[in-house]
Amino acid sequence: MIIRKIQTIVVPILFWALLTKVLMVIFNGEAFTVKSFILQVLSSLWFLWAVFYSSIGLIIGNKLFKDNILFHVVVVLGLMLLPNMLSKDLYGFMYPYFAIGYYANKHKIDIKSYNIKIISATYIIMMLFWDKNKYIYTTGLSFYNSKNVFNTIGIDIYRWVIGLLGSIIVIWVVGIIYDRYNSEKLDVIRNIGVESLGIYILNIYISNYLLVKINIFESLNEAIYTIICFIMSLIITIVSIQIINIIKKSKVLNRLSLGGR
C-alpha cells in the first residue's frame, strides 16, 4: 500500500521537480546541485506531500494502532510542537481532515443527516471573524517559539473547525446536485474529480511560472482581481485537462508525471 502511494504521489513530485530544475538550469542558468534538487523536491507541490504523509499516518494508525483516534491526536500535537520546516505546518494543518474523512468513510457517516442550516449559520458567523492572521500561511500551525501559546492554539482550532464546516457544506451541496440531476449530465464534474491530481500539478506550475509574470493583475482592485482569478482558474482547468489527455497517450509519461492515474 505504501509502495502504491510512492508510485502515485512521490514519483510525480520527483518528475515535475526534476523537469522544473532542468528548465531553470537551461533558461535561467541556475546551477544544478543535489542539495538544490532535494530542496526543490521537498518544497514543491506541498498538497501532494500532505496527501502522502497523511496516507502514511493513516496506514500506520490502522496497522499498528487499530485505528485508535488517540494516535492521530498525538501526531497532530507532535506536529504542533515542532518548528516549521519544509511546509510542515501545511501538512499538519491538513492531517486532521484526512483522518476525519477516513473515519467518516469507515463508519459510513451520512453528511445529509446533519442539520445543514445550523452548520451553515455557524460557518457564516465564524467567517465574520476571519482575518489575515487566520491564514495558515500567515501564522502557521506550530506554537514552537510562540509568544502566546494559547492564542496560537485558539487560531489552530478556529481554522480546523471552520475548514471542517466548509467541507461539510461543499459535500452536502455536491450530494444534493447528484441526487437531483441526471448523473450523465455531471460527467464534467466527475472528470475534474478524477483528474484532480493532474489539474493541481499543472495549475501550480502554470500559476507559479507563467501567470506570475503578468504584473497587470497587481494593480486591480480586490473585487475585479477575485473575478479574474475565478475566470483564470476555469481556463487553467480546461487547459490542464487537455494537457492531461495528451500526457495519457504515453503510458510511461503518464506514470511518471501523473502516477499512472
TrEMBL record:
Residue ranges constituting the Acyltransferase domain according to the UniProt record: 1-239
Pfam families tied to this protein: Acyl_transf_3
Keywords: Acyltransferase, Membrane, Transferase, Transmembrane, Transmembrane helix
GO MF terms, alphabetically ordered: acyltransferase activity, transferring groups other than amino-acyl groups
Domain of life: Bacteria
Coiled coil: none
Ranges that cross the membrane: 6-27, 39-62, 68-86, 157-178, 199-217, 223-247
Name of the protein this chain belongs to: Acyltransferase family protein
